[in-house]
Each structure stands twice: as C-alpha cells, then as structure tokens.
Amino acid sequence: MSDATGFTIPKIELGDWIETGLDYLTTNYSSITRGISKFTETGIDVLNDALMWLPEWALIALVTLLCWRLAGTRLAIGSVLGLGLIWNLDLWDPMIESLTLVVIATLVAVVIAVPLGILAALSDRFYKVIMPVLDFMQTMPAFVYLIPAIPFFGIGSVSAIFATVIFSMPPAIRFTTLGIRQVPNDLIEAADAFGATRSQKLFKLQLPLSLPTVMAGINQTIMLALSMVVIAAMIGADGLGNEVWKAIQRLRPGDGFEAGIAVVILAMLLDRLTQTFSKEKKPRS
C-alpha cells in the first residue's frame, strides 16, 4: 500500500499468519479433533434417533404437557398448533435434526460458559481480560465462525456444533457474571459474619439468587444457537437450515418460507419455555 508521495507501507500478512496457525493446529492436534468429532457424532446420532423413535403425536403430547406444566394453557395450545403445522408441512425430521443440534450445542456452551462467568464474577483480573474477548466474539460476523470449523472437523454437523458453541457462549458468560455481581453486598457480608466459606457463599447464596439472570443468559444462548444452526447449513449441517439453503439454491421461495416458519415456531417454543425459569412461578392460566 502506498500514499500520494510514493511511500510504501508494507501489508501486515494477518491472513497468512492465521492460515499458518490453523495448519499447525490441524496437523499436530488432528487426533484430538478426530476424537471430539467421533464423540460428538455419537451424541448427535443417539439423541436424534431417540427423538425420531417417538411417534410425532407422542412427542407433541409430551411437549404440550411440558408447556402446560411450566407456562400454562396458552403456550400448550400454541405448541400443539405449531408442532402440528410442522408435521403437516412434512418438516418434522428436519425440525428434530435442528433441535438435536441446538440441544447439544447449548449444553456444551453452558458447561463452558457458566464456570467462566462465575470466574469473571469472582475475579476482577479475569473480568478485565474476558470482557474485551466477549466484545470481539459478539461483533464478529456469524459467517466467520464457520471458517475455522471446517479445517478442524470437516463438512457436517460436528463443524456446525463447534461454530454454534463459540458463537452462542458470550451471553451466558455475561449474564452469569452480571447475576452474581448483582447479589446485594449486605447479604454477602451477613454470610461472612456467619463464617461461610467462599464455596458456601457461591453455591448457597450467590448462585441461587442469580439464577433468574443466569437463565436469561441461557435463553439468549439457545436463541443464538438456533440462528447459527440455520446458518451452518452452508457447511453441511442437517435440519431446517438445510431446507432453507436448498430452497435458495433451487429458487423455490415457497419451500424456503415453510422452513423459515418452522424455525420461528421452534424458536418461540424454546424461548417461552426457557423464560419460565427466569421468572417467578405464576398460576397456570
């Protein structure tokens, strides 16, 4: 790159450095990634087969009962209508595949994110380190997360889960940290006065009081995971995203809208169900 005076500024070969780093990791740690890939594929197959084994009407009945118990009659009726529409549109199998990917990616993301959020809440030094990292992760375009997944895990659902986990973790970390830091100081001082240890304060005071906020973060993680699973159809992920991608490639907008509506129904059900854990119990309507 040069300016009007002819002075040349050498280009920073950032892309080459990243490619070199990825090549090094994929070459020297391929056995680890292969093991992770096989383990993840097994988990996907087991959960997917278990959900597919249930008849459509039986799974709809179970989801309806769960919605009624947790959120009331209104959501139960909505779940029957929504899942019935997905079944009628012949999108049941893709919906189950998407749900499987979302469940596994969310579980992995939460297992990683909640301990990191707790550590950030208890350590100011770690908090100052991880917050800029989370800002970077949340401003990075979603498509970019697909790039490093392919060298490590190849094309398919495992790469989709890898990208989804990285993309969906930040809200869970942030909300966990926020919830614990918002616990009133007078309660912490009272626990100290009674001689509570650090672990007792964490597990018997801070985490229970911060649970609604933590669940709100998990809710956001689930929503981001679902959106990423749809995008990940570009690298071979199965599910509703693949139906949307095929409709785009074949110029069939009707099929694309049908799959999109199924995504919205699944997102609304997951959103409303997880929101019940971040609110106080109310009488069923």
UniProtKB/TrEMBL annotation:
It is a multi-pass membrane protein. It comes from the Bacteria. One of its GO terms (biological process) is glycine betaine transport. One of its GO terms (cellular component) is ATP-binding cassette (ABC) transporter complex. The chain crosses the membrane at residues 57-87, 99-122, 142-167, 209-236. PANTHER family: GLYCINE BETAINE/PROLINE BETAINE TRANSPORT SYSTEM PERMEASE PROTEIN PROW (PTHR47737), GLYCINE BETAINE_PROLINE BETAINE TRANSPORT SYSTEM PERMEASE PROTEIN PROW (PTHR47737:SF1). This is Proline/glycine betaine ABC transporter permease. The lineage of its organism: Bacteria, Pseudomonadati, Pseudomonadota, Gammaproteobacteria, Oceanospirillales.
